[in-house]
Every structure is written in C-alpha cells, then in structure tokens.
C-alpha cells in the first residue's frame, strides 16, 4: 500500500526518528549517537551533530561567543564540553509543534459525547512561546541539548538537572514559558522551564524503575494529563495543569510485564480518546481514558516485541487504525475491531529500497518508525541501511469512474475494476435535508459542521457484477466519455486499452495504447498508439562470459528497440459515432519528434513531450524513482485519464530547477496547436461548460478562464494535489489527505 517517497542511505542503524508537523524536516539518531536533521522534500541534510561525544565545532563556537560578549576567562568547564553519552530521544520544539500538539489533544478530547463545552469551543491558538526559534532537542544520557536551528545557538542542560525521556507540557504559567518534562532513570519526572532553564517542579512516587516514555493528552473533562510508562511495567497518570501543586500520581496501573516501551494517543471518532501502549512482553494494549480499563490486548507479531507504534487514520484505509514495527522488514497495520482486528503487513520495505543499497548478505531491519502527525499518507522508518520515507500508493486502490447522474435523480453509480472483474456500484443518499443545497454551517476543528443535526446520512448501495470480461489484471486507469455512454479502461503496463459501451457493456474498440484522453464536448478520444516493445532479456548471473556478453548485447538491442518503439508511437484521435462504431479522425497529431509522455483530455487536447534533460548517475540514485500519481478520469468533467511514462523522476524535480516547456495544447477540431509550449502539468481539469480549466503543478494549481478568450486568473498554493473536479464554477481539489 506504500511506495517510496525519499530514501537516505546511512552506514549505521537508525534507532530514533521524529518528523516535524509543518516543515519537511526529519530528525534521526543512529546507533553511534550521530544526530542529523534531513529535509526529505529537498533531500538535503540541514544539520549534523555527534551528540554522543563532545562536538568540537559547538565548543569552539561557544568560546567565540563568550569572547565576543567580553568574558575573557571562562569560569569552569562549559556544559558543551560534557560528553553526551547515548541518545535517548530526539524531537523538534517550536510554536508549530506546540500548536499542533495542543490541537491534537483538544480535538481528540472533543470527540467524546460527554466532553465539556470549553473543550469543544473554537480552538484559539496558544500564545507564541518560542519567539521564532526552531529548537532541535536531543536528550542524551548525560545532558539535554536545546539547539536553535535558526541561529545555531544551543543550550546544554546537564544530567544532574534532569533526565532521559521528555515531553513538552502544553500549559504553563506565564513566567516559566514553555515547560519540558524529563523522565528519569530514578523514576522521577523533572520539569524544566525553557525561559529560565531552571527546574520548576518534580513528580515523584510513581515508578520504581526508570521512565521509558512520556506523553501529554487531554481528558474529555478538559483536564491536561501527563502519562508515563516505566521499566517497571507501570502506566502512571499525573495532572499537567499548571496550577496543580499535588505532584503525586492520580492513577497507576500495571500495563506490561518487563516494561512499557511506548505510549501513543488514539483519537476515536465519536468517543473519548484512547491510549495505545507497547511492552517488552510482545503485546500491544489499548486503554480507555475515562475508566482506564484495558479494552484490547494483542500480540501483533508473534515472538517479536514492537519497538514503535503510531495511531493511524488514513481516509483511503478506513479499516486500519494502528501501525507498528518490530525488528523485521515490514510496517505492520492493525485492523479496527469492527473489521477483523487482524494484523497485516502494510508494506514490505525491502521492495521499496533501490536494489543497489541492499547487499546480498544484509537483510533490511526496521529499528524505528513514525507516522506524520498531519499528513497520514507519509510514514518514515529508520532501518539498518538508511531512512525510508514512504507515501500511500494510489495504485493500491481499485480504479473507479463515476457514471453521470441523471438530472433530478438520487441514484448514483460508479464502475470499478477488482482483479479481472468489472463491477457496477449503485448508491442512494437518503437524508431529510436536501443534499444538493449544501449546508451553510461552518466547520469546527473536529470536522463536524456547526448547526448540523446529528442525523446520519443514510447510504443504500447495490453492487452488480458486469459479465463482460476484463482482459488483464494489472494496474488500470478508468475514464468516462463526456456523454457518459462509453467507458475507457487502459492498462499502461501491458500496454492495452478497451472501450466499453455502458448500455450493454459490449466492447466497441480495443488495441495497444499506453495513454488515453477524452474530449470534454464530444465522444472523441486521443490515444498514444504503441507498438509492443520487445521484452528485455534478463542477463543470467554467473555462467560463461560468452553467454553473458550475448545476453548483454541482446538486452541492449531490446532496449534500443523499446526506445525506438516509444519514439515512433504517435497520438491518434478517434470518434465514437451514435451507431457505436469507432472511426479514426486523425492518424497523427503534432509534427514534433520527441516521444510523447502524457495525454490530457479536456476542451483542448494536451500532449506532453519528453525533453532531453540529462540526469547524472549520482542524481539518479539520490532521486528516488517515483511515478507521478496516476488519475482515473472523473465522469463528464473531462478530467484526463493521465499517467506519465516519464523516466520516473517527473514528480521529483528539484524546486529550484525551472520546469521544461514541453506541453502543447491542440484543438480537437482542427488538430492544430493552440498557443505556445507550457510546462507539463501533473494533471488538468476542465469544467463541463468549457469556461474554466485548472492545471496542477507540484506546488500550486493554475486556474484560467477560457471565454471570451484565454485568461490567466491566478494560482492557488495547494501542493501535491492528486486530482480535481469542477462543479458549478467551484473546484473540488483532492490531496493525499484532504478534499
């Protein structure tokens, strides 16, 4: 279900990992206590630090700062000269982290029907506390390092002042500024002010051994709580309210034999938040936060203890609610109890990594995992060969295309493909409120509409099997003609296409094609005819050198033949007449020599050409090979059914490099070019009245009006959008997480 987004090879195993909620930053610590901050979007290391020992650069920097401030002789040994020792935790802290931590805790608490009014009241942003600084916080055995990534100035707090595990407290008194709690090896939790850098309070009497994990959350009563897990296997609950003087445990319960390894908060739709804990006893337990009773306990992977756990909520996988990792090569997903409650592999990570990094004798093993707090389609894992950032793979979803709904009808239907079967899904939405009028209520933080009745939208659905067979079971793209009379299915990997007549599901046209796009106004389509490229033979390992040479020569010949077949492929336009016959209107569009890599349907036909940009082998390994996201066409909106067959780097172009001008629009009537060359969009969407169009790029969407003449209206900064559909001058945009 996941594909590679970014990969950074490392020499040592990555044992700690954390993502920033709003910046594309990822901090890791390896087994040798090297800490590095990596920008996974631009694939650049921002900062590196030897946290285990003494970092000479920081020591020199501190001495220079002291001299500049007029201190001639340093008094005593600077804290920067203390050896860090083993890294226990790495994290980020700034106003964004604080805001989203508080938002997560508040929105999880507000889900419970019993939640008090001030929890469900509109969320006001907490007062800025970090004064524009972005802290990287490294918690080591002998000290904690607070490093500002903006000014690169740091603050080291020695061990005698605090200890190993930490959590930022969301509520603090004005004078103390942000507070950070550290869990100690002596079972004491010490709270440090990030303004005065002094201890402000201690929580004692909860644990008999060392504290392994800390987390803040909010109860549905609105009380801020701190939960700690220890090596004694206890889960202890403390009050994190700043007015509290009672620093004794509110509650203590035995959670795991052999120690608690991690605690995570789970937001439950329509219920009080839950806690997920993992332990050395190889079990994962789920706890209710009202009664603190155990709700479920499972052993996700027999014989192996989980080292990482993440609460996961992805709209494309509603049946999965927890991700976890053990020391193997998988990310495991646990199903929600309303489904099967089974644990299944979400992803086999060794299949994502470029093969040159997997040594034949080395088996990939995961040592740490984190899900992105705001973008659930991103999951980062630390392994013995490097850092893997993976994203949700749209190819793992069944391809679907909606049929146009008749005016005034409440019956909607869509066609989808599962394995080698074409299926028809019909559904009706029954709601007393007229859904077409929409709601004029405003959305609350929790995503509910204010002023909405709590009445559920009832969905009645019927699934029908269509008897016409589907010739292939590989990945396919579905798209609908403008009239809704014809459905196109393209199998780009084969390459093959079929056009089905919706009235009786008979096949009216088929052949070899990798790309297909519909005209918005008539039942016309363009396709990239492709001669079937010969299979490239596999070069055998070992064996005689003569055979290997022959095989290599045959492979080179086949590759050349495949390249010439790709460049010889032409864009052809066909029309479907009322009698159901398909006729060729134009054998070849555009007299350009470059191979075609994309077709976009709409009121004009968009053709993308491959430009000859060279990529050095070094850059090629750094750029992870990702196909840009394929799209199935959305009914009569004329959205292109577009997949790129570029060199795999199309969605990974660096932001600094200007996009090549390789996209030409053509008229469906005269087949002549319209306007000049443009940069190739990821996808295009034209409205049904042919008045507006949207072209999507990596970081933004360009919106233009087409009548009375073409006019650029502006662009919207919605990055990484995966598709859009027009409806009455409104554009509904889908991103990997949001509509």
UniProtKB/TrEMBL annotation:
Signal peptide per UniProt: none
Pfam families: WD40 (PF00400)
Record InterPro entries: TSET_complex_member, WD40/YVTN_repeat-like_dom_sf, WD40_repeat_dom_sf, WD40_rpt
Protein name as it appears in the record: Transducin/WD40 repeat-like superfamily protein
Protein species of origin: Escallonia herrerae
Lineage: Eukaryota, Viridiplantae, Streptophyta, Embryophyta, Tracheophyta
